[in-house]
Specification:
The complex is a heterodimer of chains A (about 60) and B (about 300). Chain A is mostly helical and about 60 residues long. Chain A has one domain (about 5-55). Chain A has 4 helices and no strands. Chain B is globular and about 50 Å long. In chain B, helix 2 (about 30-55) packs parallel to helix 9, helix 4 (about 90-100) runs parallel beside helix 16 (about 280-310) and helix 14 runs antiparallel to helix 16. Chain B has one domain: Na+/H+ antiporter like fold (Up-down Bundle), CATH 1.20.1530.20. Chain B has helices at about 5-20, 30-55, 60-85, 90-100, 105-115, 125-135, 135-145, 150-160, 165-175, 185-190, 195-210, 210-220, 220-245, 250-260, 265-275, 280-310. The two termini of chain B are about 15 Å apart. Chain B contains 16 helices and no strands. Classes of the chains: A mainly alpha (about 60), B mainly alpha (about 300). The interface between A and B is medium-sized, with 27 and 24 residues.
Chain lengths: ~60, ~300
């Protein structure tokens, strides 16, 4: 996974989880969002465990 | 307008659980095809009857705004897919086109939820569904072929023959032209709608869960994009509905349309227009992530949002 994809995954996951938790407190409509956010954050964390350098194409790795 | 899990959505969950537990369920392909035809005809016919009653020039600015909305959505998705997802131009354009178009299944669930709770909405909405099917395909193609000649003729031919658009527009026209005489066929499409939708969602649950292993291949980006994009589209759709002065139900449905991604009309069109695009990417995102996300998590949030917008 590229660095920006990891950042996007974390942003969306945590954003959804926070928004979902907030909405769940107010209305009960946010539980789905909360679970979806945790799922994205979990998938991103799992992807991050793989060494970034191994998945970035060589020329991009050199440039970074 | 808080929404608990509806009975039709429970059937979707049943399908997902059945596939995850590898239950021995074989849903015939012909039945899926039959249910899709039924839903398209039912939505089109009811919309056509309503359109005949409400047709006026005041609908024109609303229709133009809806078409413009369909043009904008893929333009928002494309840079995300290119810059963050590092998709090739063709793949990004193809996925963007799916997200600019609409899912008839998601619309059907949204409309069924409103009907079950007796929340009124602009009953000519299927007209907007038909309008939103096409613009994103054209934008996607222009994005993919920037600066190159585009073969429009086979694409227009494919769109004209596409079952989704053809049946939706056809039944809409029948509803408009025979508005006073559809009583003899309406019971089939009206009374059986929720039951057929439940069966359809059971199959969609099986199909969506079958796509989950693809997520491992395409990575968390697809999952994040497939959940972020419907929220963006829903936010803008709701805002547009509110600006157009729609009812709470109408604002909700326009948010649902903005949030949904096509998995019937656009894949067929893209196969003809962009055969080199990776269809698996778009189908995993739209069917494996966005459809379940909308049905399980998105719809209650769009309902709350629509209520909040129209109450403000």
């Amino acid at each position: 996974m590229h660095k920006r994809q990891i950042q996007f995954g974390w942003s969306v996951g945590l954003g959804l989880a926070l928004a979902g938790a907030g909405l769940a407190l107010v209305d009960g409509a946010g539980w789905g969002l909360l679970y979806a956010g945790l799922l994205v954050a979990g998938l991103t964390a799992a992807a991050q465990k793989r060494p970034l350098a191994a998945t970035i194409p060589l020329e991009r790795h050199r440039r970074d | 307008m808080a929404m608990q899990i509806d009975v039709v959505i429970a059937f979707f969950l049943l399908g997902v659980v059945a596939r995850l537990l590898r239950a021995d369920i074989h849903f015939p392909v012909a039945l899926h095809q039959t249910l899709t035809l039924f839903l398209l005809l039912a939505i089109g016919l009811k919309g056509g009857v309503a359109l005949a009653a409400h047709a006026s020039w005041s609908l024109l600015p609303q229709a133009l705004a809806v078409v413009a909305f369909g043009l904008v959505l893929p333009l928002l998705a494309f840079p995300l897919l290119r810059q963050i997802g590092h998709f090739s131009r063709v793949d990004a354009a193809s996925v963007a086109a799916h997200y600019g178009s609409v899912s008839i299944g998601t619309y059907a669930v949204g409309a069924a939820l409103l009907e079950a709770r007796a929340i009124p909405f602009e009953s000519y909405f299927p007209f907007f569904v038909a309008l939103l099917e096409v613009p994103a395909i054209a934008v996607g193609l222009i994005l993919a072929r920037q600066g190159q000649a585009i073969a429009w003729r086979p694409l227009i031919g494919e769109l004209g023959r596409n079952q989704g658009l053809f049946l939706l527009l056809g039944s809409l026209l029948i509803g408009v032209a025979w508005a006073g005489k559809v009583d003899s066929v309406l019971p089939l499409f009206r009374d059986l709608f929720h039951g057929a939708l439940a069966l359809f969602l059971l199959d969609m649950g099986l199909r969506a869960a079958s796509r989950l292993p693809d997520l491992r291949q395409h990575g968390p980006f697809i999952a994040a994009f497939g959940m972020f994009m419907p929220l963006l589209g829903g936010l803008l759709g709701g805002l547009l509905g509110w600006t157009l002065g729609l009812s709470t139900g109408g604002v909700f449905l326009l948010a649902v349309l903005g949030a949904s991604a096509s998995y019937i009309a656009v894949p067929a069109a893209m196969q003809v227009a962009l055969p080199e695009a990776n269809q698996g990417l778009a189908m995993t995102a739209s069917l494996g992530v966005t459809f379940p996300f909308n049905v399980l998590a998105g719809l209650p949030v769009y309902a709350l949002y629509a209520h909040w917008l129209t109450a403000a």
